[in-house]
Design brief:
Helices cover 42% and strands 15% of the residues. Helix 8 links the parallel strand 7 and strand 8. Helix 1 packs across helix 2, helix 5 packs parallel to helix 6 and helix 7 packs parallel to helix 8.
């Protein structure tokens, strides 16, 4: 299941500033998509109270959560918010404990136990403990922290690859280890510093994790985290284990792109404009016969369009198909000349031809005649 953290992790993106209205629109998009949980922000974030009040009563089955550091004072603030879950962040690597918190393992466990116990006494029903920098932590100690959180009443641990150094194999192994020793929900938070985030998140879910963090377009600190649109599409269209409304994804991605000032590459998985565009002769010919030969899912499933164009990489079959689609006829012996003309013009323009440009080539006397 998906925990979307566009408004917490994503809001930490360098240079990104979301207004309350923008945040509310993102939440509306996430609710329409059907994500399981929305991490709506962090304790102390400006406007958080108002944002929670704006969306209360229309979240349906989607749970709202808020992030807080492992401090009693912040837990008290979180307990006053009208959210369903509180996510407590606590580092478990010696590096973070020593340099960031100025404590050791014993001190960290003491703080963790006290904070989770306080959260429970304050009436927080679902407490999630994020084990930060777990990929550089001693696994035995990290497991001890997870077990302690469970004993103190936490409902979930979140395994955070804070610097994105895990691989799918390692993430699967880590998830299975915690699954064997804990009787509670397990989530993962996978950063994308080496491009592994979505793969790591999927592998963790397959290895027994109950939740995976994600953000729209993967935005977040540094290279960001696993992408909501990629996880939602894979789980719904490939694994068919969930029923996220994938036809809502591209509009949501476009909105977040504009709000965050992050252009979407035209070949970006799920969100890109050209992911179902084809120019190559072999692929274009195959697509004209049976689209599923070179498509992992129907473009309509994500509200996208299939687009074929002729150009410098097109061969005879692609040209013949384009002629038919444009209502044109070419004598068999003139097709090689048209192929050459298409390739030449395309290389001059350094792009595929538009339908108008292709049609104009067919108007050359003695080469192509319009079908009567």
């Amino acid at each position: 299941m998906l925990i979307d953290t566009t408004l917490r992790e994503g809001a930490q993106l360098f240079g990104a500033y979301f207004s309350l209205d923008t945040k509310e629109k993102i939440i509306s998009g996430l609710l329409a998509l059907g994500v399981d949980e929305i991490e709506i922000g962090w304790v102390g974030q400006e406007g958080l109270d108002e944002l929670v009040s704006r969306v209360q009563g229309r979240t349906g089955k989607t749970r709202l959560s808020v992030w807080t550091p492992c401090r009693a004072a912040d837990i008290k603030i979180a307990a006053q918010l009208q959210v369903d879950r509180v996510n407590i962040g606590v580092p478990v690597s010696d590096m973070h404990m020593g340099k960031r918190l100025g404590t050791g393992r014993a001190g960290l466990l003491e703080r963790l136990a006290s904070t989770v116990l306080t959260a429970g006494l304050l009436g927080i029903e679902y407490i999630s403990v994020g084990l930060e920098d777990i990929s550089r932590a001693d696994r035995t100690f990290a497991l001890t922290a997870g077990q302690l959180a469970q004993e103190m009443g936490a409902s979930r641990v979140r395994l955070s690859d804070s610097v994105g150094i895990m691989t799918p194999h390692l993430m699967g192994d880590l998830t299975r280890a915690f699954r064997r020793h804990l009787d509670m929900d397990i989530a993962v938070h996978c950063h994308d510093d080496f491009g592994m985030a979505t793969g790591n998140a999927i592998t963790a879910l397959q290895a027994g994790a109950d939740y995976a963090d994600a953000s729209v377009l993967g935005i977040g600190e540094r290279s960001g985290i696993a992408a909501t649109e990629e996880l939602a599409a894979y789980l719904s269209l490939k694994e068919k284990s969930h029923a996220y409304q994938t036809d809502r994804l591209r509009n949501l991605c476009e909105f977040v792109s504009q709000a965050a000032g992050i252009p979407i590459p035209r070949t970006k998985a799920i969100a890109g404009t050209d992911i179902f565009s084809c120019e190559s002769g072999l692929h274009a010919h195959a697509l004209s016969k049976s689209p599923e030969l070179f498509e992992p899912y129907d473009p309509a499933a994500i509200n996208a369009d299939r687009r074929a164009a002729v150009g410098g990489k097109s061969g005879r079959s692609a040209i013949v198909t384009a002629l038919g689609e444009n209502g044109l006829h070419c004598p068999e012996h003139e097709i090689p000349g048209l192929v050459s003309a298409v390739r030449t013009l395309s290389w001059e323009l350094k792009r595929p031809l538009t339908s108008t440009e292709f049609s104009k080539l067919t108007e050359i006397p003695g080469t192509i005649r319009e079908e009567q």
